[in-house]
């Protein structure tokens, strides 16, 4: 059960048939099929935060059943349900997950990226691929930004398996540069941002947890993480083709314009606007929401009724889904 859900989750974009989704539903379908096993056990327990997530998922199901409108609503429902279902199965089965599956996935994504760099297309494995021009490779994802998010997920999983002593420190050390190389190959602005946030959070965790025993080991690790972040930024500022890539444009734009880039860059502004408007909808709907898949119907109204600090970044969009990239 654990390994089946896990391996499908590591390859979320691959599909043997063409579907209208970027992220494929196979892992969720398998998880829903095995979920009743946990509920039928005599001593079923779950942590309180997970129970609260379950309430949100149940509310989303109820909202969908009251108004089951279209593909956008189904996609939103899958997002809410996935958070609860995958968290529950991970909590119950992570002890049984085979770390070799993760190492296989790291190698598979890396080989796919190298093959794409050399001109071998793997588009036949994916329902949709969006790249080209200044954008980087997609690996086994539908676009470079999705690839970058997978790589950050892998960095987190690598830390988890190493902390749990599922494999050796030497394996852990080898995996890290392989994943960083893939983040660079994606040439994604989202990849730069998320990878930098990952290393920044690791640095902060070392400072917090080692503050009472601030050893040379802790200082060294913080220094190495700082060097990693700075090195990634310098590569995108100075090395072609990274410099002329989308990620390079965002790094240089931020160095020149600072946070003004948030509303001057259309792609960033779109995503930030969607995030702000969807968050503001909680207030505007008095906490009940406007229904799943109805963003295009309410976005303009939310924009015109929103505070100025939101409307500065947002716009009356007509897209049928929220494209904040925070999921």
Your description of this structure?
- The structure is a single chain.
- The protein has 327 residues and is mainly alpha-helical.
- Helix content is 66%, strand content 0%.
- The chain is built from 14 helices and no strands.
- The two termini are 24 Å apart.
- 27% of the residues are buried.
- The mean pLDDT is 80.
Secondary-structure element order, as H and E?
HHHHHHHHHHHHHH
Give the overall form: globular
Tell me the major beta sheet. Answer: none
> How far apart are the first and last residues' alpha carbons, in Å?
24 Å
Topology record:
Layout: H1 2-10, H2 26-39, H3 48-66, H4 70-93, H5 99-117, H6 144-163, H7 169-186, H8 189-209, H9 216-238, H10 246-257, H11 261-264, H12 266-284, H13 295-305, H14 308-311
Helix pairs in contact: 1-2, 2-4, 3-4, 5-7, 6-7, 6-8, 8-9, 8-10, 9-10, 12-13
Care to give the gist of this entry?
The protein is mainly alpha-helical. The protein has 14 helices and no strands.
Features:
globular, 66% helix, 0% strand, 14 helices, 327 residues, single chain, mainly alpha
């Amino acid at each position: 059960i654990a390994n089946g859900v896990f391996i499908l989750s590591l390859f979320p974009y691959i599909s043997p048939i063409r579907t209208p989704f970027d992220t494929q539903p196979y892992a969720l379908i398998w998880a829903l099929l095995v979920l009743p096993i946990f509920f039928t056990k005599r001593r079923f327990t779950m942590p309180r935060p997970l129970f609260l997530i379950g309430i949100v998922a149940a509310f989303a199901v109820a909202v969908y059943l009251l108004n089951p409108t279209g593909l956008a609503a189904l996609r939103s429902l899958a997002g809410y349900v996935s958070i609860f279902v995958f968290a529950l199965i991970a909590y119950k089965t992570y002890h049984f997950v085979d770390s070799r599956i993760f190492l296989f996935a790291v190698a598979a994504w890396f080989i796919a990226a190298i093959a794409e760099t050399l001109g071998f297309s793997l588009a036949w494995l994916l329902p949709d691929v969006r790249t080209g021009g200044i954008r980087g490779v997609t690996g086994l994802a539908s676009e470079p930004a999705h690839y970058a998010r997978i790589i950050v997920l892998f960095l987190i999983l690598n830390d988890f398996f190493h902390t749990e002593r599922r494999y050796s420190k030497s394996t852990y050390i080898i995996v890290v540069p392989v994943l960083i190389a893939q983040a660079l190959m994606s040439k994604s602005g989202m990849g730069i941002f998320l990878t930098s946030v990952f290393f920044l959070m690791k640095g902060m965790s070392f400072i917090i947890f080692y503050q009472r025993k601030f050893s040379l080991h802790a200082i060294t690790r913080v220094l190495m993480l700082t060097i990693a972040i700075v090195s990634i930024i310098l590569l995108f500022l100075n090395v072609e083709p990274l410099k002329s890539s989308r990620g390079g444009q965002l790094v240089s734009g931020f160095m020149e314009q600072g946070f003004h880039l948030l509303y001057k860059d259309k792609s960033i502004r779109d995503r930030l606007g969607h995030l702000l408007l969807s968050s503001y909808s909680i207030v505007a709907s008095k906490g009940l929401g406007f229904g799943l898949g109805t963003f295009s119907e309410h976005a303009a109204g939310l924009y015109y009724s929103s505070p100025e600090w939101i409307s500065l970044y947002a716009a009356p969009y007509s897209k049928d889904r929220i494209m904040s990239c925070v999921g």
